[in-house]
Amino acid sequence: MRTYVAAAIEYFRNESNCRTGAQRLEGEMDKVAGTSGASDAEDQGRETQHPPRSHVDYPLLFEESPEVLLVLLPDAPRFTMVAATKARFRATHTTRESLGHGLFEIFPDNPDDPGATGSSNLRASLERALKTGQPDTMPVQKYDIRGADGTFETKYWSPKNIPVLAPKGEVLYLLHRVEDVTELVRASELGEELRGRTHEMEREVITRSHELDVAFRTLRETNLKLSEFDAAKTAFFNNISHEFRTPLALILGTLEDELGAGNKALPAQTRMQLKVAQRNSLRLLKLVNSLLEFSRIEAGRMQAHYQPTNLALLTAELAGNFHSAVVRGGLTLTVDCPPLPEPVYVDRSMWEKIVLNLISNAFKHTFQGSITVRLEWRGDSVQLAIEDTGIGIAAEDLPRLFDRFHRVEGAASRTHEGTGIGLALVKELVKLHGGTIAVESEPGRGSRFTVTVQTGTAHLPAENVGTNPDTFASGRMSAPYVEEALQWVPPAAAAAQVEEVTGANAEGAPGRPTWTAPRARILWVDDNPDMRSYVTRLLKRFYDVTEASDGQAALESALASPPDLVLSDVMMPRLDGFGLLRALRADTRTRRLPIILLSARAGEESAIAGLDTGADDYLIKPFSARELLARVRTHVELAWQRRAWESELEQRVRKRTTEMEVQIKRMGLLNQITRAIAERHDLRSIFEVVIRSVEENLPADICWIGLPGAATDGVELGNSLMYEPDLQSGSKRLPQELSGLELRSLVSAPLRAQGDLLGVLIAGRRLPDSFSSGECEFLRQLSEHVAIAARQGQLHESLQAAYDDLHLTQQGIVLREHWSAPAATAEPAAAPQLGGSKISG
Question: pTM value?
Answer without folding.
Answer: 0.37
